[in-house]
Amino acid sequence: MKSLKFFYGKIVRDKTAERLLPRGAEIKQCKLSKESILAKLKDKLLEEVFEFCHEAKDLDDQVKELADILEVVRGICSQLDLTFEDVEWVRQTRHAERGGFDKAAFFEWVIHREDDPLFKTCLERPEKYPVILEEITDTL
């Protein structure tokens, strides 16, 4: 029977080896430092978000990917000595202050005045908030 070695290079769930070994898999596993664990969990979070956004084909797939995202978030919380409830409390606080996404407001652009702190924030992050090349004078 043909076998091939595949590069994984990623953190996996705790029971993954238990599922693969009985099927004849061979695994090279290494111990990660605390700093590496957090970095690999961040990579895993990006992987799961990508799968949710680009590979989940139906509601069932989307629910599974959202569950995977939450599992990675729980792992990150553990590495940061936080509980998921700590993060949930902050989420609820921010929701009370800023709202959620129920109204699905979508801003195409915003004009900020120079005295607004967000004016500077946007200028400092041009990859996120590119300036639209038209000068606006005192419209607000």
Tell me about this structure.
The chain is mostly helical and 140 residues long. The protein has a domain at 32-102. The chain contains five helices and no strands. It has helices at 16-20, 34-54, 59-79, 84-98, 117-124. Helix 2 (34-54) runs antiparallel to helix 3 (59-79). The radius of gyration is 22 Å and the shape is elongated. The termini are far apart. The mean pLDDT is 94.
Arithmetic mean of pLDDT: 94
Strand content: under 5%
Query: What's the helix-strand series?
Result: HHHHH
In total, the number of strands is: 0
End-to-end separation in angstroms reads: 72 Å
What is the gyration radius calculated from CA atoms?
Answer: 22 Å
Residue ranges: pLDDT <50 for 5 or more in a row? none
* Largest sheet geometry: none
Which structural class best describes the helix and strand composition?
mainly alpha
Assembly state: single chain
Measured as a percent range, the helix fraction is: 40-55%
Shape: elongated
Number of helices: 5
List the helices and strands and how they pair.
Layout (H helix, E strand, L loop, with lengths): L15 H5 L13 H21 L4 H21 L4 H15 L18 H8 L16
Helix pairs in contact: 2-3
In short, what is this structure?
By secondary structure, the protein is an all-alpha fold.
